[in-house]
Please model this.
Amino acid sequence: MRDVRVVLIGGASNTGKSTVAGVVAERLGFEHRSTDGLARHPGRPWRTPEHEVPPHVAEHYGTLTTDELLASVLDHYERLWPRIEELITERARAGTPGLVLEGSALWPDRVARLTVPRTAAVWLTADDTVVRDRVRAAGRYEEATDAERHLMDRFLARTVRFQARMLDAVEAHGLDRVDTGGRTVAEVADAVLAAAAAARTRPGR
Model:
């Protein structure tokens, strides 16, 4: 890992990217950032004690089909990619602070085409039932109204479809993935670091 300056952690929503990226960054002494901080797509459509669902978010998930929801988020990530690539390129230079960058916007097809040295990429996956349980726990599904449940169900349907498409791309390019099922955060971080240390995970080689 001595020559790796940027570690990319992709994956669908609720697969543990942020938590794992934080641990990996701490172990490496790198900065931790999320692609969501560059430009955010309509967020997660459930209430929290600090957050109400904005009307435009409720409309987004409440009116679009699963295919339309998937197309919308993929289009957003395509528009965001130049900014992501610029950040990766900047932080991969020798002498710059190391970076762990995580986010669903790290789409395998684009990462596989990177020619940036000193980078490594890993995707996190989780069983659909694990993702469902995490979404429902976060949104307090059992206490939610029918309308609120509908929004969560739409988000979940898009997430499952997104992960299936992402997995196809990861496997097509022979990229590394780590399944988070049945593992502690520390164990997943260990697996990410091991994968990142392997030369074949480095898009820029």
